[in-house]
Amino acid sequence: MSFKFSTPFGGRPLSLAQATAQVTATVAPPSITMNKWTVLEDITGAKKSSRSARSGSLGSSRVAELPS
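User: That's the sequence. What structure does it adopt?
Assistant: Structure tokens below.
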């Protein structure tokens, strides 16, 4: 008897090691989990501040500012 494992996205083959890792995976304790939207906001804010710091040193901003 043989089984063919595939991923839910695009039907790519799934190795036995990947399937085993999924079966044996445990749920992370709530103390180390993060809200994905909070992480996205943090990354976006860091990119914006990085861009504004770089554009200030170049003398002109390449990113259009929206009116408040």
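The CA atoms of residues 39 and 52 lie 20 Å apart.
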